[in-house]
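User: I've been trying to design a sequence by hand for this structure and keep getting stuck. Would you show me what you'd pick, starting by listing the structure so we're on the same page?

Assistant: Good idea, let's start from the same input. This is the structure you sent:
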């Protein structure tokens, strides 16, 4: 069966995500922990489905936790990571290991990251697991001017993958 982005959006009941794409939370650990450096209790782990299509992008953002991406269906997803030292890493989330794609990609806490599907007409269905669990108190959406000033060597990419 050939699947489409519309099929996954409807079947998985995905809704619009603030950073771009569509998502639905699928798991929130009942265990609450107090991680060092966090402002309060966090669930030990959370997980979502995340769908991104060609023509849209997940805007640069960062969180205070590690985020592990999992490939499920579709075409490769480019995940652009800017580490705190300014190093840019381009990860390919997909199933063609021989072409440098990875079934899982880890984005460490504190890195700025954005993603896009770069195959015309393509889509990527992925999963994201966050530990300690995701909380909007730990989420920061990048502003184009601020992030571009912080990392001028990546200003062109930042301009493409920010919304304001």
């Amino acid at each position: 069966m050939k699947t489409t982005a519309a099929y996954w959006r409807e079947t998985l009941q995905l809704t619009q995500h603030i950073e771009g794409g569509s998502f639905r939370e699928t798991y929130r650990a009942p265990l609450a922990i107090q991680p060092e450096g966090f402002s309060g209790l966090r669930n030990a782990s959370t997980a979502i489905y995340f769908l991104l299509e060609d023509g849209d992008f997940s805007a640069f953002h960062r969180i205070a936790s590690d985020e592990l991406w999992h490939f499920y269906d579709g075409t490769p997803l480019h995940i652009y990571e800017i580490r705190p030292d300014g190093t840019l890493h381009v990860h390919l989330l997909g199933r063609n290991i021989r072409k440098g794609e990875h079934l899982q990609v880890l984005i460490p806490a504190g890195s700025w990251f954005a993603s896009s599907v770069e195959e015309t007409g393509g889509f990527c269905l992925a999963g994201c697991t966050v530990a300690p669990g995701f909380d909007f108190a730990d989420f920061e959406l990048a502003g184009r001017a601020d992030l571009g000033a912080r990392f001028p060597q990546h200003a062109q990419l930042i301009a493409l993958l920010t919304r304001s």
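That's my pick for every position. To get oriented when you compare it with your attempt: The radius of gyration is 16 Å. Residues 39 and 137 are 8 Å apart (CA to CA).
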